Amino acid sequence: MIVWLASELMFFAALFAMYFTLRSVVPEMWEVETAKLDVPYATVNTLILVSSSFTCQIGVWKAEHSFKPYRTGGLLNIKSWGMVEWFFLTFILGSVFVAGQVMEYATLVSHGIAINSNGYGSAFYLTTGFHGLHVLGGLIAFLFVIGRAYGAKRFGHREATFATCVSYYWHFVDIVWVALFLIIYAIQ
Length: 188
What we know:
- This protein is mostly helical.
- The chain has one domain: Four Helix Bundle (Hemerythrin (Met), subunit A) (Up-down Bundle).
- It has helices spanning 2-25, 27-34, 39-65, 83-110, 119-151, 157-186.
- Belongs to the cytochrome c oxidase subunit 3 family.
- One of its GO terms (molecular function) is cytochrome-c oxidase activity.
- Residues 1-188 form the Heme-copper oxidase subunit III family profile domain.
């Protein structure tokens, strides 16, 4: 998992290099196009994704330390939640983030920023779009972890390790987004 994440890091490093190269070549385009970004909206969307890292980690803790795959009390009793409930919440938060990205894309296209409009559009959509695909991959992985928890005759070390590996990927995706957010939205 760590080796694969290192290759993913190199992939995103190449996307960052593309972004910075284009930005250095045509800085005036960045001034015009970044003014169209909705920074407060992106900030809220970022907070949703970052909060999903916390819910993911609580789920991992439930899986690793107590081998507790499911809740032991009522659904509204959060203290009784197991890994599955925390991972479902993480899945929901990640899905909200992706839906937020789609809505942002629609707004930007209506403002004239498309992937084929100019260098800024290409850089923006390639970096954020590939990140979005990685988020979708993480969401699918959460469904596999949840399915594996339900399918296991006895939830044990193997299932907990699988959950931990998926959490590594999810935290990586979140960290990459924080870097993208800082570069695209904060440092205009």
